[in-house]
Design brief:
Shape: globular
Number of strands: 11
Order of helices and strands: EEEEHHEEEHEEHEE
Largest sheet: 6 strands, mixed
Helix content: 10-25%
Structural class: alpha+beta
Length: 199
């Protein structure tokens, strides 16, 4: 039986979840993470002009406008706007965002969102893999490195959530080893549209 399914009985004879009394709060994940194919560089303040030039080179030549459909923001209208959005972490509170450096060139970004350190839960999200890195070893390794760091820092659960209409994201989640857990109906409003969220 999987650990999360295990129960015990309290003094009233009721089934309750197994005790985690010795479970310590998780540590926030900060700093750069290096892999073989990609380096995740934490966005911590100002982004250099070189990094802004590099990521804009990917964004401005993105052939698939559909990659912005399910993100909560539209395609950046200029390099200056993109740089500002990145430095503001796209408005995600309490998030840790990383630029994806592949061979010395920034080709995307990814984030750790909604950390609940006491409960050991965090989410991988706000993923932009540009056309220069989609379905590559670097893309797979970026997810692997984040998962590795999350579990190393004591997280019990790593979440992947997306618009239920976003078939590529759902397929990617399954490919990366996540399990479908259900649908949150009418979970939020994004760009004036209803969003049902797949967990």
């Amino acid at each position: 039986m999987k650990n999360y399914l295990k129960t015990q009985q309290n003094q009233l004879g009721q089934s309750i979840g197994c005790s985690l009394e010795n479970n310590a709060p998780c540590q926030a994940i900060k700093g750069n993470i290096e892999g073989q194919y990609v380096t995740l560089t934490e966005i911590d303040g100002e982004i250099s002009d070189l990094a802004a030039d590099q990521i804009w080179a990917s964004v401005s030549t993105e052939p698939n406008g559909g990659c912005w459909t399910y993100l909560p923001y539209s395609a950046p209208s200029s390099q200056a706007k993109l740089k500002q959005d990145l430095q503001n972490l796209f408005g995600f509170k309490d998030s840790t965002h990383f630029l994806l450096d592949i061979g010395g060139e920034i080709k995307g970004w990814i984030a750790l969102l909604n950390p609940r350190l006491v409960h050991g839960v965090i989410e991988i999200g706000n993923v932009y893999f540009s056309h220069r890195m989609k379905q590559s070893k670097a893309a797979t390794e970026a997810i692997f490195l984040l998962l590795q760091q999350c579990f190393k820092h004591g997280f019990r659960r790593v979440e992947w959530k997306c618009d239920d209409c976003n078939e590529p994201s759902k397929t990617a989640a399954l490919r990366f080893g996540f399990h479908y857990e259900g649908l949150f109906r009418q979970d939020r409003i994004i760009k004036g549209r209803n969003r049902n969220t797949a967990w």
